[in-house]
Amino acid sequence: MTTTLGKIPYALIAVVLAPITAGYVWVLRNAEGFRFAHPGALALIPIGIALVLWAGLRRGPRRRGVLTYSRASELAARPAGWVARLRDLPMVLRLASVALVGLALARPQTSRVDDDLELEGIDIVIALDVSGSMQETDLVPNRLDAAKAVIENFVRRRPTDRIGLVVFAREAYTHIPLTLDHETFLRMLSELHVGIIDGRGTAIGNGIGVALNRLRHSDARSKVIIVLTDGDNNSGNIAPLQAAGYAQKLGVKIHTILAGDNDPQAAQAQAPHGLLQQQQRPQYSVNPKLLEQIASMTGGTPYLATDTRALAERFQKILEDLEKSRIKDRGILYAELYQRFLLGAFALLVLETILRLTRFRRLP
Fold first, then answer.
1. Degrees to nearest 5, angle at CA 277 with 272 and 281
2. Could you report the average pLDDT of every consecutive run of 10 residues in the chain (364 residues)?
3. Integer Cα distance of 297 and 251 in angstroms
4. 112 by DSSP, 3-state: which?
5. pTM over 0.85
6. What is the C-alpha separation between 202 and 187, in angstroms, rounded?
7. What is the three-class DSSP state of 339?
């Protein structure tokens, strides 16, 4: 009798394994509470199995050797042992590990519905003016440092929001992309200073435009830009109202804050002998009407902050007014299962290696 697995062709092994693997995948795919994040990766399973079988068939003929025995007839009459019957077990283990790796690449996940779960979040980009005028000390210690302190407090109170930072002066660029890593955000915020970019201008329109680029592909239901500046738009190649029009089309709300005491009257300072003396401060052009238009076009609110306390209050008001945005799959928690499949594949490969090096080792 010749019923050993060793005499079954590799093609037959593939014919048997393929429907079993496909059936198992179908069961998992349609089981309640189970899904594949990347189901297209399942197509790699038959490809991987075919490659392993092809490599085994190519090596097969070279592995066959001829052993000569003085009494071969007696050797042939002996019944085949369990090693001979399971000679292709290492190959089967390898094929099974390939199937498990393919399942892992498809990212199997299990879900649990929780009606009481509310995952809230909103995408926020802060567009911060870092032009030269932000060094003025009407806000303590200066306008930029006061803004950084208030932004830090704001970020710490929004733990579930993705927050990004755009800086602008004569030009604009993304300093921090949208992120939930708020510790990194705060570290990079602390390193900001006037002069990090050309401060001889204020490109509010460009700042809004760059912030919109960060939000364009966001899937959050609520998207907000907070523009903090102390001057009028006098640089850049995008008009602020044009940028606000784009924000309106994208459903992005813009809150604006005009920081600093820009009263044209000269500031008064206390002289050493208790007398008031005039302290001349450079005057910068401002345009609160422009900021009001930007905010009203997008459904946001314009604010004016003439001192540090007022600036903190304005951010607090924005904090209170921000509407919550629930993620698409709210109420469902997904747990990754790919680690289990990878561990299974690794265990099968280790077992295959041990078998090939010991009991199932073949002589060339």
1. 115
2. 44 57 59 74 86 74 52 56 65 84 85 50 94 93 96 92 96 95 94 93 97 92 94 95 96 95 55 48 81 96 92 90 52 69 87 79 59
3. 11
4. strand
5. no
6. 25
7. helix
